[in-house]
């Protein structure tokens, strides 16, 4: 059994916190407690992925061939699985896929996907064709010792 919740938010920095709260509330309604490691990881991952959608989505007002209908929104979906695991998905209109890169010790940006790589059991990108992409991350339930 699974329970999915999807919602759209404006591409604005304040939306990152709202995405975190909505994911937390959905998972809490499905039985995840505040100290649940899967919930904590989900909160971090949705924060990173939503931040990337806000920062790296298509430029507002851009109407080039790559982005025929630029949107000022992104979509977040969270699926709570019966075993306590969850799937986080963040979709935007950009077709540029995120990629891990080397980051210098003093650089302030570029570490988000490294966090995703370390926290998620698996992650990747699904193409939505001319409608952009979905970046997803799977968080496994903490089964205890």
Number of strand segments:
5
Number of H- or I-type helical stretches: 3
- Tertiary shape: globular
Structural class: alpha+beta
Question: Could you state the order of secondary-structure elements as H and E?
Answer: EHHEEHEE
Q: What's the end-to-end separation, in Å?
A: 25 Å
Q: What value does the Rg take, in angstroms? A: 15 Å
Descriptive notes:
The protein is α+β, with helices and mostly antiparallel strands and 145 residues long. Strand 4 and strand 5 (133-139) form a beta hairpin. Helix 1 packs antiparallel against helix 2 and helix 2 (37-56) packs antiparallel against helix 3. It contains 3 helices and 5 strands, in the order βααββαββ. The longest helix is centred in the first third of the chain and has 20 residues, at 37-56. It has helices spanning 14-29, 37-56, 112-119, and strands at residues 2-10, 73-81, 86-92, 122-127, 133-139.
In short:
The protein has 145 residues and is α+β, with helices and mostly antiparallel strands.
Topology record:
Elements: E1 2-10, H1 14-29, H2 37-56, E2 73-81, E3 86-92, H3 112-119, E4 122-127, E5 133-139
Antiparallel strand pairs: 1-2, 2-3, 3-5, 4-5
Helix pairs in contact: 1-2, 2-3
Question: Key features?
Answer:
single chain; 145 residues; alpha+beta; five-stranded antiparallel β-sheet; 3 helices; 5 strands; globular
